[in-house]
Amino acid sequence: MVHHLLVCEKPSAARKIAYTLGGSGVSRIGRGLPFYRFQKGGDTVTVVSALGHLYTPVQQGKGWSFPVFNLVWEPASGRRVKLFLEGIARLAREADSFISACDFDTEGSLIAFMILRKACGGADAKARRMKFSSLTRDELSRAYENLSELDTPVINAGMARHEIDWIFGVNVSRAIMDAYSCNTGRFEVLSAGRVQSPTLDALCRRDDEIDLHVPDPYWTAGAEIRFLSSGETAKAEYSKNPILMKGEGEGLRLRCEGSPGTVRRVEGGELTVPAPHPFDLGELQSEAYRVFGLQPWRTQKIAEGLYLEGLISYPRTSSQQLPPSIGFRGILTKLGTIEAYKESVGEILNYADSGRGLCPRQGKKSDPAHPAIHPTGIKPNRLGGEGRKIYDLIVKRFISTFGPPARKSFKTIEVELERGDVFKIEAEAVSDPGWMKHYAPYVRISGSSLPEAEEGEAARAEEVWVEERYTDPPPRFNQSSLIKFMERNGLGTKSTRAEIISTLYRRGYIEGSSIRVTELGRGVIGVLRKRFPELVSIGLTRDLEERMAGIEEGREEYSAVLLRGAEAIKGAFEHMISEFEAAGAEITNLVEGRRGQTKKIGACPSCKNGELIIVRSRKTGKRFVGCSNYGSGCRFSAPLPQRGVVKATGEACRECRYPTVLVTWGRTKSWRVCLNPGCPSRVRK
Q1: What is the pLDDT of residue 88?
Q2: Options 144, 238, 289, 314, the catalytic residue
Q3: Which CATH architecture has domain 3-150?
Q4: Is 314 a catalytic residue?
Q5: How much is the pTM?
Q6: 533: Cβ–Cβ under 8 A, 6 or more apart, which residues?
Q7: Which among 674, 675, 589 is positioned nearest to 636, based on CA atoms?
Q8: CATH architecture of the domain formed by 160-211+476-582
Q9: More reliable by pLDDT, 420 or 644
Q10: What residues does each domain of the chain span?
């Protein structure tokens, strides 16, 4: 009889795996670790959970210095982490077989490895691996019955990523904070990172392009054309758009309006629009942003919750392909029992059985660990608003990948007026929705009819207009387009990109849904470009990403990639240290300028000549608003919320005329607060 210890990534996953394999109740070690123990096939099975990463890289030894390259993996901080590790170590002493049952990716593999090596006394040497892409009963049972060796290349890739990110992030952040501290004697939290900094640099460059763009004027012309035989009208575009000269456009309007003409060309045809491929994580995030306005980090979190409920496959995948092994017909049949999808599933199965076969359209990208995101077919019991939206989007995308192509009819009609000017009508309409029917309402099906005309038919320009326009600058990034940019340029991974963007928001480096770089972000990048040009290089980051992927694929050695990262940062520091004082002065000007801008709220309503500023109590650490004339006798103060970013509005309260501030929490929540403690408007809005 063997005693197996299964290490899972999260408590909800541990519960799902335990109940699938035969467990029925939870036990606890004191007030700490929950675990599940049961008998299976004559063996004892204990299922236990981590809390994500229980170990993290830290500096070896004490002290605050840079550059520092010696690191060790130690338990993460927190009482709960300590309780979990103590409980796992106790359970490990009772076991003689160890299984990694964390999510099958670099993070999950690394989480289990560190626990097995450190908390379980070197059990990684004999541990085995469960590999699964969904938390369904069938797949978990197969994974348990078909254990493999520990996925060492994946583990090494995860270790390399964390250690290189630590070397870059800790050293550069300490350098710029130390430079500021030595210059002022104060401390300020500033950060930089291997992926964070080139991403911020790209945002700054886009802002520069927008700021430096000089709009050039141009003119376009159009007309409403009436076909005399039918009386039907259609809007047409001047065939020589754009018009570069204003006078030319005005002359066109004068000679063409009311002018008779003839239809000189009619062309039409049909376009085939193939079904979409299934989602990878990046495309799911982009689509959820497009149709729901959900930020990428939020979409990822919701999808991970659906996965833990067993409703969808593992979401952190870069694959756009579905293998037949997942059982297409079985999943569709289960989805067909849900009323919302019953009709679509029936049509798809009929289409397949008519001889077309049940074959989804596959995308180009693949992932060796996981298939594209797809529903498991399990019927959801309860789903909240956002969870229901993401689930519906994934299900309808999955169903539509099996659908027939859509067809669009198009028509081009050219009308030549009596003085030789040509206007062109271009129109299209969906003639057969095909797969679009199953993906609605997330795709728009245009059903308008096409204009009818024959060559040689008489026509007339009823109305002609000329519009002045200006060339546009490149668009600002939003979170969706930024993730696509990061993916194209090898910045981060499918799992980390959304969190990197969130970090830029939290640091105050960027703001807005249409992303703008703040003065702080621009200043930090200015310092990094001058002092650490390698750190803002997309080329270096892409090179390291490719090398870390090479570790996972067995093409690169862990130690060689780590050395490459250390050498890259070491050269930059030699230059930084030689100009430490100058760097400190630059950073001081940046921080102090920002502090002066953000601390000022407005005129004091009590003494009338003081300035209200944000102050932090030395005793309690809490922030409040006080008057700059405090030393001269003004005792005005007002409490502030202790969380969120506070900014002056420049507006007075409508009820009491006191100054107001805007408190922003996260990236979407904000409310206006009056500084009069007795004002009835001091509630969140």
Answers
A1: 95
A2: 314
A3: 3-Layer(aba) Sandwich (3.40)
A4: yes
A5: 0.79
A6: 572
A7: 675
A8: Orthogonal Bundle (1.10)
A9: 420
A10: 3-150, 160-211+476-582, 217-274+406-470, 281-400, 604-674
